[in-house]
Amino acid sequence: MAIPLDQAEVWIFDLDNTLYPASCNLFAQVDQRIGDFIADRFGIPFGEARAMQKRFFREHGTTLRGLMVEHDIDPVPFLDYVHDIDATPVDPSPALDRALAALPGRKVIYTNGSVAHAANITARLGIRDRFDAVFDIVAAGYVPKPDPRPYRTMTESFGIDPSRAVMVEDIARNLTPAHAMGMTTVWVVSEADWARPDLGGVGTGDHIDHAVPDLVAWLAEVAGTAE
Ligand SMILES: [Mg+2]
């Protein structure tokens, strides 16, 4: 059941393509570095590494999961390597900073990436001090969204009442477990086919309470900082 937004006690934000626009194309850098990591680790050409990467993603949900399950790869150097990217395509966002500062309630980041990646990106956006906590793929025991188990680990470890929480995400299917737990859900509208509710393998979006094309403008309205 969706709650009025002014009753939210906790705001849970995805990081990539949610707190900054997908048009920054940062994932292209991560994607390239994942391919490089695999090519280097297995001593294979980049094309073969790519095929392996795609198969892992398909069969295990993330490349990292496939590397860990099938090849016992240490996740720490992998995460450090693939997130060592140039954040300058992301522009600082004073408007987002103002909205987050004015928004009542705790704010946390829930990402399939790493704490270091979240720190890098939020520093670039100029919003790093606005969050009370980051729940990353390490805290999730390397089980990525949308597996429901880490959502429960997250809410339990942060003492979050899901019925008083709002979750904001660009990948619609990642909101399915949040909705099932009773959270109010906000989908940052994305045209990417892997992000859309109708192509996310979960029907057509009754797990979405708010569909928001421009998160910064929408949050500014909610927080009362719109100009
Ligand atoms: Mg995302």
TrEMBL record:
It comes from the Bacteria. InterPro entries: HAD-like_sf (IPR036412), HAD-SF_hydro_IA (IPR006439), HAD_sf (IPR023214), Pyr-5-nucltdase (IPR010237). Pfam families: Hydrolase. PANTHER family: HALOACID DEHALOGENASE-LIKE HYDROLASE (PTHR12725:SF117). This is Pyrimidine 5'-nucleotidase.
